[in-house]
Design brief:
Blueprint (H helix, E strand, L loop, with lengths): L2 H10 L7 H42 L3 E5 L7 H9 L4 E16 L2 E10 L1 H4 L9 E4 L10 E5 H7 L6 E12 L2 E15 L4 H4 L2 E5 H7 L8 E6 L5 H11 L4 E5 H4 L1 H39 L1 H9 L4 H32 L1 H12 L6 H4 L10 H18 L1 H8 L3 H5 L3
Parallel strand pairs: 3-8, 5-7
Antiparallel strand pairs: 1-9, 1-10, 2-3, 2-6, 2-9, 4-7, 5-8, 6-7
Helix pairs in contact: 1-12, 2-10, 2-12, 2-15, 10-12, 10-15, 10-16, 12-15, 12-16
């Protein structure tokens, strides 16, 4: 590109006395580009933050990987436990018992997922011990029939710490009156709060020994749970273990268990990206209209440049420079403001809530009271690159139209 092409293109972006309207449209295009880029960066950061927060809560309450048997009964579990623990990616492994049941207090009845755990091993598998609001996991001692409930479940049943509760297991026993469910009275020794309804509303923890007695498993367990060094490698570790396990055992990782949720989040993220990209597209249309008006306004200038020896390609480059400047400045403004806003959402959102006396996220509905943000710079580069490419493409038609200007026709009425 020749220096004069760059000089004239930059000069055309500045206002003159007779074309304030064109300069105003250029400013609107620039601000529109900046707004679109900023919105994309902030929304993607917030969605990443929500995904990271929910993922952390899921993995804090459930193991990264589980090995289960057909029929829910694993007899030779110590050998399987050793095999799982020998994998280099496994930090810790422990047996567990899982089954469905019903909790009853007075007239209140709730269906629950009962999980029998070894409290001494559970602390190395999940973060449930850190989510205890009252009592302790260590109070789940074998033979004492203690139970730990989610806070929402305890509230629904109207039960408090140290009170008695009746657990009904579907594995019944035959009597002269027919099949009768098994009933056992437990004492509430702890309450936990994870912040996710599937756990706080329907999960009950008991000692693994008590669970074996309740579900009549003898020395067997339901499966083996494990914690991994790198959660992103869970599918690979699961496949490796599956190749080593007998045919009646199955290895399931957390990505498979929660696949529907994460698939929905990814789809929503892609759709939001497409929808918000329309803001950038609208700004690009403004760039097209700005350059078309600039070409019309500069017909005489173009004709003079052509008579002085400027080639059609040079004329085209002049207006490409003008459009690219609008796009680059808008992209830089949007990227900078988007990064600053995404990194300071924890300050900006409370300020807006206090200023307008509103609450964007009710804790009792969303389980979190502030907007999480996880800024990923590769996404910032993707958004900035897309914005620059769109603004570059928007300059092609008006610049091509300018290059086709005929000097004689343009100067006829001047």
């Amino acid at each position: 590109m020749q220096p004069y092409e760059l000089f004239i293109g930059l000069r055309y972006t500045r206002a003159k006395r007779r074309n304030h309207f064109i300069s105003f449209i250029s400013l609107i295009s620039m601000l529109g580009m900046a707004l679109g880029v900023m919105a994309l960066i902030v929304v993607l950061s917030v969605m990443n933050g929500f995904q990271k927060e929910i993922r952390a809560r899921m993995l804090g309450a459930s193991p990264h990987l589980e090995v289960v048997a057909d029929g829910g009964r694993l007899n030779d579990w110590p050998a399987i436990l050793d095999k799982v623990a020998r994998n280099p990616q496994v930090v810790a492994a422990a047996p567990y018992v899982s089954g469905q049941g019903m909790l009853s207090v007075g007239r209140s009845v709730q269906g629950v997922m009962v999980r029998g755990i070894d409290p001494s091993r559970e602390t190395s598998i999940t973060e449930l011990s850190n989510k205890i609001k009252a009592g302790s996991l260590d109070d789940l001692r074998s033979g004492e029939f203690g139970i730990v409930l989610g806070t929402d479940l305890a509230r629904a049943l109207g039960v408090r710490l140290h009170e008695k509760i009746l657990l009904i297991a579907p594995q019944g026993q035959f009597t002269p009156a027919g099949m009768m469910p098994r009933l056992k009275q437990f004492r509430v020794v702890g309450l936990f709060e994870i912040g996710m309804a599937p756990y706080d509303n329907s999960l009950a923890l008991i000692n693994i020994g008590d669970a074996q007695k309740l579900f009549r498993l003898g020395d067997a367990v339901t499966g083996i749970s494990a914690k991994l060094r790198d959660t992103d490698l869970a599918p690979r570790v699961s496949a490796e273990l599956q190749n080593e396990l007998p045919d009646n055992l199955y290895a399931n990782d957390w990505t498979h268990q929660n696949s529907n949720y994460f698939r929905a989040v990814q789809m929503e993220k892609k759709m939001m990206f497409i929808i918000l990209s329309l803001i950038v597209a609208v700004a690009a249309f403004n760039i097209v209209s700005t350059l078309v008006m600039a070409v019309t306004d500069k017909q005489a200038d173009i004709a003079i440049l052509r008579t002085l020896g400027a080639s059609p390609r040079s004329i085209m480059k002049i207006f490409i420079v003008q459009g690219v400047v609008i796009g680059v400045v808008g992209t830089l403004l949007g990227s900078t403001s988007g990064i600053v806003l995404a990194l300071n959402l924890d300050v900006v959102v409370p300020f807006i809530e206090q200023l307008f006396r509103v609450q964007f996220l009710a804790k009792d509905v969303y389980y979190i009271s502030e907007l999480p943000s996880d800024l990923r710079y590769h996404e910032v580069m993707l958004v900035a690159g897309m914005s620059f490419l769109i603004s570059m493409l928007a300059t092609l038609y008006p610049s091509f139209r300018a290059s086709k200007t005929q000097p004689a026709e343009a100067l006829r009425y001047e």
